[in-house]
Write a structure and sequence with these properties.
SH3 type barrels, Ubiquitin-like (UB roll), globular, 4 domains, Serine Threonine Protein Phosphatase 5, Tetratricopeptide repeat, 17 strands, alpha+beta, 500 residues
């Protein structure tokens, strides 16, 4: 079978999948001789949809055999092994998928014809689940703590829930690939499948040269000898926002609106605040970074001095002091009137992530007494300490509630990597009125294949649980909990309360 025939059959099979004719699509795929790694991957996905796990395993074997660097194929074969309860083999495949990510936060396969992003934090979550199935709860917890370093705003909830489950030694749901999403052939190649008349019809033209008696074809015209010397500016550089800067020092965020970067990263500064914090873009993510951790990068396309030179190594010196967040910036670059207490980085500090009606984080010395911890959290919420109740889980039980009589050493022993997660409950607001969860109404229907998302229909009532970031909210609807776009809902005010 020629390449053109393979391309035509591949496109025909994908079209059948789009029209929900999976049987015909699989028949066409199996008729292709010498499929490539992407076609084998598509075949494996269709076998998974048909619950034919043995055939799916063989197809993913062939896909990996054709391309041993295809991380998403390792991920899918790992899910196949997981369904077959072969947890050691599923763990090995998830480890291979994570290795193929090469330290990146994600791989976007759109350029290869697959509308899917494979996130490192999701691969680590499935690794943790395989370890949990094998009874290795400590290793499962380590993988999830590592996933926190790779998470994005939209993946925040699913990692936190998995961490909560491991603390209780309970299993959680894996992240599954949407099997109806397939690799598609290059649309430009498909467009060339139609027969074209490249010669066209003969046409007689007059010569552009006066006194030229020749007729039939135009004579050759003189060519321009000296073209422009300046190279054309690439479209990708002209489309970038902000000013390019090089990161000089490693920065570890302490709040959800700050962005983790390491030396050598190239970030684009959108706005610099008066408090020496900058709103930047890095890997399609926005967040805040201390401006004194950055150095302006001059990009000159016409300069030949930069040819062949890589990014210079950052100077071997200690990073500057973390600036105080006085009048900070939001990650989008807009000014915010809020204030933030200064927490100097220290090896003795512990990051306490607190689940409330919204999520936030504070830093306290590891091993702090109850009075220091409750004072820091109540000050963050602008509530009296008597109105705040802390717990080790989302449910208030005698074993989970933290009080002044609690053995704080047992609490701090739960910290992993100098991080701990607590839950906060407010008995009353500052005005004395009880708190209540905010109801929302759906303006549009929202359907998503991501397991951490909340699907709903237009007109449904949704209970707002927390704000993930500026564009995403967490809520509960019809007994399900997940995240969803904030623009899809509107607020139903209750007693003048508003969180959106």
């Amino acid at each position: 079978m020629t390449f053109v025939d393979t391309l035509r059959q591949w496109d025909k099979a994908v079209t059948c999948v789009d029209s929900q004719d999976l049987t015909e699509a699989l028949r066409i795929f199996l008729a292709i001789q010498e499929p490539n790694s992407k076609i084998y991957f598509d075949i494996g996905c269709l076998h998974l949809l048909n619950q034919d796990l043995d055939a799916a395993e063989k197809a993913f074997d062939c896909s990996i055999g054709k391309d041993e660097h295809l991380a998403v194929a390792f991920f899918q074969r790992g899910m196949t092994f997981y369904r077959k309860k072969r947890f050691e083999e599923s763990l090995a495949d998830f480890q291979q998928a994570f290795k193929a990510l090469r330290g990146n936060q994600l791989i976007d396969y759109k350029a290869l014809g697959l509308r899917y992003k494979l996130y490192a934090c999701e691969v680590l979550l499935n690794m943790a689940l395989s370890e949990a199935q094998l009874g290795h709860w400590d290793k499962a917890h380590e993988h999830l703590v590592k996933a926190l370093n790779y998470k994005t705003d939209t993946k925040l909830t699913i990692i936190d829930r998995a961490l909560d489950s491991t603390l209780k030694q309970k299993l959680f749901k894996p992240v599954e690939f949407p099997s109806k999403v397939l690799f598609k052939p290059n649309k430009h190649y498909v467009a060339e499948l139609e027969k074209k008349d490249y010669l066209g019809k003969a046409k007689v033209v007059a010569s552009v040269v006066p006194q030229d008696a020749f007729s039939g074809f135009a004579p050759l015209q003189p060519q321009v000898e000296d073209g422009p010397t300046r190279p054309k500016e690439p479209e990708v550089l002209r489309a970038l926002e902000g000013e390019p800067h090089t990161v000089l020092f490693k920065f570890v965020p302490e709040t959800s609106d700050e962005l983790a970067v390491v030396p050598g990263n190239i970030v684009f500064v959108l706005q610099k605040g008066a408090d020496n914090w900058a709103s930047v873009i890095f890997n399609e993510r926005r967040g805040l970074v201390p401006y004194n951790y950055l150095e302006r990068l001059e990009i000159s396309l016409s300069s030949k001095q930069n040819e062949g030179q890589g990014i210079s190594q950052p100077p071997p010196r200690e990073p500057p002091t973390r600036p105080e967040r006085k009048q900070g910036l939001t990650p989008s670059g807009r000014s915010s009137g809020g204030t933030q207490q200064k927490d100097e980085p220290s090896d003795n500090l512990c990051i306490v992530k607190v689940h409330f009606t919204f999520n936030f984080a504070v830093s306290v010395p590891l091993g702090s007494p109850y009075a220091v911890l409750i004072e820091k959290i109540s000050k963050k919420l602008n509530l009296p300490t008597a109105a705040v109740t802390l717990s080790l889980s989302s449910e208030l039980t005698e074993q989970s509630v933290i009080t002044s009589g609690t053995d704080m050493e047992s609490v701090w022993r739960r910290a992993r990597g100098q991080r701990i997660t607590l839950w906060c409950h407010a008995k009353e607001q500052t005005d004395g009125n009880p708190r209540s969860e905010l109801p929302l109404v759906a303006l549009h229907s929202y359907e998503s294949s991501n397991p951490e998302d909340l699907s709903f229909h237009e007109g449904d009532t949704i209970t707002l649980l927390s704000r993930v970031n500026q564009d995403w909210l967490e809520g509960r609807c019809n007994g399900n909990t997940g995240i969803f776009p904030a623009s899809f809902v509107e607020e139903v005010p209750v007693n003048g309360q508003s969180l959106i």
